[in-house]
């Protein structure tokens, strides 16, 4: 009676061991890398390139949706001219995108 319980409890012929445990985690990491991490890195790289290419006179839109023209720009601060009188100061990272003259 005890012999049959021991045989049923101890699986026979199970191979792979640690490889069978690690392989699913490696596959999940590869899938996450190509679906989430890599596209986010590419997006961040293009955003950083756009922010570093900003210069005086560029028309931009802030994250809050404010449209303006760059009057002054430093390493971390941008001054936007909203209309003829109003100038607003923003962090450089608050710029969402640059607006082309064609659009």
TrEMBL record:
Chief localization: membrane
Entry-linked InterPro entries: Preprotein_translocase_YajC (IPR003849)
Membrane topology listed for this record: Single-pass membrane protein
Recorded GO CC terms: plasma membrane
SMART domains registered for this protein in UniProt: YajC (SM01323)
Superkingdom of this protein's organism: Bacteria
Localization, UniProt: Cell membrane
TM stretches of this protein: 17-37
Any single biological process term in GO: protein transport
UniProt keyword tRNA processing present: no
Pfam families listed in its UniProt record: YajC
Keywords for this protein: Cell membrane, Membrane, Protein transport, Translocation, Transmembrane, Transmembrane helix, Transport
Signal peptide: none
Family membership noted in the UniProt record: Belongs to the YajC family.
This protein's name: Preprotein translocase subunit YajC
Higher taxonomy: Bacteria, Bacillati, Bacillota, Bacilli, Bacillales
């Amino acid at each position: 009676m005890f012999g049959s319980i021991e045989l049923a409890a101890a699986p026979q012929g199970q191979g792979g061991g640690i490889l069978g445990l690690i392989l699913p985690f490696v596959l999940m990491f590869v899938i996450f890398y190509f679906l989430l991490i890599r596209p986010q890195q590419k997006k961040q790289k293009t955003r950083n390139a756009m922010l570093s290419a900003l210069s005086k006179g560029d028309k931009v839109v802030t994250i809050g949706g404010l449209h303006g023209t760059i009057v002054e720009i430093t390493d971390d601060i941008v001054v936007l001219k909203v209309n003829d009188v109003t100038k607003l100061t923003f962090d450089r990272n608050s710029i969402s995108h640059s607006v082309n003259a064609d659009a």
